[in-house]
Structure formats: structure tokens, C-alpha cells
Amino acid sequence: MTTPAHGGASARVDDRFPGLAFHGNPLDRRSERRDDAAFLDALFTRADAQTVLIAGDVPALGGGGTPTPFHAVSQARALPCAEVALLGLRESGAPVFATLLADEAIAVEGEKEATVSWDTRRVVVRGRPDIALRDLRSLAAEGVFGPEDTAILAQAKALMHWHARHRFCSNCGAKTRLAAAGWRRECDGCRAQHFPRTDPVAIMLATDGERCLLGRQARFPRGMYSALAGFVESGETIEEAARRELFEEAGVRVSSVAYLASQPWPFPMTLMIGCIARAETRELTIDRTELEDARWFSREEIRAVLEKRHPDGVTAPQPIAIAHHLITAWALHGASA
Q1: E-state strands within 195-321
Q2: In 102-209, at which residue ranges do the beta strands (DSSP E only) sit?
Q3: 68, 255, 268, 270: which could join 63 in a potential S-S bond, CB 3.0 to 4.6 Å?
Q4: 268-282 per-position pLDDT tens digit
Q5: What is the helix (H) or strand (E) element at residue 333, kind and residue range?
Q6: What is the pLDDT of residues 230-263, one digit of tens each?
């Protein structure tokens, strides 16, 4: 029986936040066995061993007409691979790995359209028309896979993103090598050890009783407003980061800050820490380099936003994002700091 001490199989999707993506990972990470070479070798040879394939920053799906995020390890070995890491074990004991495909395994097809700003070319796995590349955000928004499988995909994407960008030692510049089943990189030049990073982000909904503060960035879809957010800096608590970001971006000072929930957000590898904050000031001074706009919304307005009937066409983030649930918790359930 898997135990909570291993950090995995006791996890369950929190039904307080329906639709929230990337949490509820069921895998037992077995972190205490990551340096056990014999244990890892035995896992690789199991007939039920599976892996998630990551091509660049995108999951590579198998299954043809019925997509699956998992591939048999025995079959994945035939592809050019850059890195392999153990994500964890299922309750059955079956291991699940993450595999980063090597650059030579990927091809770009087509020509970029000159009339649009984004890259319209198609990325494929060479010689494998049965493997489809799909953006993880789209997979989550469309509910292609269940919550647990989507959480495993998020774990794989974030970890492989880190490996792809940390192949050289930040201390001496020498090449690093994978260790600890993919949860450490080591430098033989200076003996430095490097560990996967997770960047904490405070995302907070400031409220003053019957109103809440939302802002929008220029890159947001038209009409969408969201809770404000910012990275927690060194030597700073979550509460201090929430207060600082609200003041810097909108000029609003807040007193108490209450934690609501958190969410792994693999774009690229952050932990969103959701909070409700009590506003002490209401006048807005918007930092236009960070926000295109910010405004206070009444509770009734937010209900209209959530029901997609706001007269100005204002919308909220999708339920896959914790911002949606911060807003919902305040507007419908009375959450407060």
C-alpha cells in the first residue's frame, strides 16, 4: 500500500474546485529510491512500464483516434531521446516515466504565414504519423484526459522543460548529467548539484466587502479580466508578496491575506498560490507596463461575468485556472480574508 510519506498515491482531486487543472497527481514519487540503481533498472524492464513523451514543450500523444498520454517504455526506446526521468509509481506498482525527445526526433513542416504574428508551422515526430503533438493548455481546457492523467502530463512537462534548459552548470559552465532518476543534475567539473525548480507565484483577489479587484494584461483574450499575480521574491513571505504586488500593479494597499488553494501551473514550472486579500484602500494607480486595465467589480457584476452575461462582455479565466476559482469562491461562496 502506498503511503502519504512518498508524496503521491494518497493525492485526490479536490472537488471544491471542479475543472481546476494539474492537481490530484496520483503517482507515488518514491523519492527515497531515486538513487537506487537496481530499483530503477528493474522498473525500466517491467512489461507495464509507461512513459510520457515530451517534444520540446509539447506532449506527444499516442493512440491514433483515441489519444493517450502514455507510451510503452519498450516502444519509446526506439525514438531518439535526450532525457528520461521517473515520475512515480501507480498503485499497481507500474512505473511511469517522462521522456524528453531529442531535437533530431522532431521536424517542422510547412511555411510560416507572413500575415500572422504566430508560428503556423506544424511540429511532428519524424517517421511517426501515429504520434500527435498537442499543447497541454488546450488538452486541459478541452478535458481530453481525466484530472489525474492531466496532472501527470503537467509534472512531465515541467520537469522536462527544466532538463532541456539546464544542461550546463550555472557554477562553472561544464556539461551536467542526469542523476537521481531525473530529479537532479550533477556537474563533474565542480561537483555542483542542481535540482528542478518550481517558481512560487502569489495570485490574489483583493476585496473590500462587496467588490473585488480584477485586472487585464494586453496579451489576455479580449474582454478577459483576472486576479492579479506576481512572483514571490527571495526573503519574502506569500502574504508580503501579495501585498507588494497589489500595491505595485494597482496602487491598492491590503491588510490581511488568507490562503485558499494552490495549483501547479506548468507554463513553464510555477506553483500558483491562491489568496484572498482584504483591501484597505480603493483608489487605483495602475502600472501600465504590467496591466492594460484594472477595475473594481461588484459581486453582482462578477456573477454576471461567470454566467457570461456581463453587459460589457467581460469574461473570467477558464475553470482550469485557479484565478477562476478565487473569483468564484468570493462571488458565490463568500470567501474572505
Answers
A1: 199-207, 211-216, 228-231, 254-265, 270-279, 293-298
A2: 106-109, 122-125, 132-133, 176-179, 184-187, 193-194, 199-207
A3: 68
A4: 999 999 999 999 999
A5: helix 322-333
A6: 999 999 999 999 999 999 999 999 999 999 999 9
Confidence band, pLDDT 50/70/90 cuts, at residue 5: very low
No. of helices (H) and no. of strands (E), the chain: 7, 17
Residues in contact with 211: Cβ distance below 8 Å, sequence separation at least 6, in sequence order: 282, 296, 297, 298, 299
User: Would you kindly state where each structural domain of the chain is located, as residue ranges?
Assistant: 4-165, 167-196, 199-333
Q: Enter the C-alpha cell of residue 182.
A: 531525473
> Using the 8-state DSSP alphabet, how is residue 212 labeled?
E
Q: Is there a contact between 250 and 291 (Cβ–Cβ < 8 Å)?
A: yes
Contact between residue 100 and residue 156 where contact means Cβ atoms under 8 Å apart: no
State how far the Cα of 217 lies from the Cα of 228, in Å rounded to an integer.
Answer: 10
pLDDT at site 3:
39
User: What is d(CA 321, CA 318) in angstroms, rounded to the nearest whole number?
Assistant: 6
The CATH superfamily label for domain 199-333 reads Nucleoside Triphosphate Pyrophosphohydrolase (3.90.79.10)
C-alpha grid cell, residue 31: 523519492
What's the alpha-carbon Rg for the chain, to the nearest Å? 22
Look up the pTM and report it.
0.92
Tell me how far apart the terminal alpha carbons of the chain are, to the nearest angstrom: 39
